């Protein structure tokens, strides 16, 4: 992808590629799940699929190819849905991109106690300091993790924050999809 640094690890490049793809779709999108497969293995074992994905002209480097999965069922909590996933051996990792509202740490002290999940979501949505964020989190079977965060108010490829520990809860939930 054009905005992905070549010096980055294959997982970082895959996460940034997914972030760029999601950015092209615009905001207010549903969560999207991706299988991550080894590009060289995909080319060797599935040349037709690799050609369909435009991978036949890619340089012969190690890398990961994200393959978008079926739509996540609407109305089912994300954690429950992730708990139903099992990946075949050919999948070396997975990634998820999801939009959420986020509050700065300074707002934590003012969160009312005892709110139901629904009332808490409403309170956050009405908070003046809320920010919309798109989180893209990727994990590999070996436990490697990476994330990309993009704020709606700073929606530019140069403003994407990356790091392994940015969304630990989501990374943990994705890693659990590889548990035996």
Rg from alpha-carbon coordinates = 17 Å
Basic shape? globular
* Main sheet summary: 6 strands, antiparallel
Strand content: 15-25%
The total count of strands amounts to 6
Q: Helix proportion of residues, in percent?
A: 25-40%
Structural class: alpha+beta
Describe the structure in your own words.
29% of the residues lie in helices and 24% in strands. By secondary structure, it is of the alpha+beta class. A six-stranded antiparallel β-sheet has the order 2-1-3-4-5-6. A hairpin with a 4-residue loop joins strand 4 and strand 5. The model has no long low-confidence stretch (mean pLDDT 86).
List keywords for this structure.
180 residues; alpha+beta; 29% helix; 24% strand; globular; PPA1309-like
Helix and strand arrangement:
Blueprint: H1 10-25, E1 32-38, H2 39-45, H3 47-52, E2 64-68, H4 78-82, E3 91-102, H5 117-126, E4 131-140, E5 145-151, E6 161-163, H6 168-176
Antiparallel strand pairs: 1-2, 1-3, 3-4, 4-5, 5-6
InterPro entries: PPA1309-like
